[in-house]
Amino acid sequence: MEQNNREEVEIDLKQIFYLLLDKLFIILACGVLVGVLAFAYTKLLVKPTYQSVTTTFVVKNEEQSGNLDQSDFVTGNYLSKNYVEIVQSNTVFEEVIDVLELDMSVAKLKGMVKVENITDTQIIKITVEDTDPGRAQEIANAVRIASEKAIVRIVDVPGVQCVDAATYPKSPSSPNVARNVIIGALVGVFLSIVVIVVRFIMDDTIKSPEDIERYLGMSTLASIPIMEEAEYDGEKKPTNKKPLRPEKKQKREVVR
Question: Is 59 exposed, middle or buried (0-12, 13-18, 19+ CB in 10 A)?
């Protein structure tokens, strides 16, 4: 019994494979269509954003400039996390809003700014993303300057130095058109496959004598060809078409 079940599963999988192979053109067409829609959506409806990056370096204390051990690295990493928190503080962002006269809240400005510490260094990287490339550059430099003041004021360090000032972004950082098109095409292919397979599984119509034996458990005694309407009425209409071969005529199955 188990062997028969496995054979039926293999036959069904094989049928699905050949079905998908037969519908390959439709599947590819759906992928291309959704990919084109994703391209149009990305180009026409999604507003591009730009990134401006600046970095700053926190100068070590004189007592930290000697030989370093493992504890010094742990302390340095801990202090670097403190520097990041200072840069992300409300005090820094409020100063930036006042200096640049930005018409936005602190929460909105924070959502545009990403602050991170470069691993095993005391360099702070500030990234600003905005739909206006010029404003992104201005905000990045303003955040760096305001955070440098705050770090010197709060932490006992000799000073903070700029490593790289923010530059004007010439090309958008997002959206990624190629990635969206690829994702759209894959989604179209996947959905078309799902629809084709579901329709195949839900289709319980009888199409062949084998289906009768498989689904109804009945054997086929004979098959009767379906006559055309003209032949049934005893009429013969002139036609230039070649007569159908007997084996190509549709048949109606007779079951027991």
Answer: middle
Rounded to whole angstroms, the Cα distance separating 94 from 101 reads 10
Domain extent at residue 78: 50-164
DSSP notation for 146-172 = HHHHHHHHHS--S-EEEEE------S-
For the chain, what is the domain count?
Answer: 3
197 in the same domain as 212: no
Q: Select the more confidently predicted residue: 33 or 71.
A: 33
Structure tokens at 167: 């530059």
Predicted confidence (pLDDT) per residue in 195-225, tens digit? 998 888 887 676 666 666 666 666 666 666 6
Other C-beta atoms lying within 10 Å of the C-beta of residue 128: 27
**pTM attached to this predicted model:** 0.61
Asked if residue 170 is part of any domain, the answer here is no
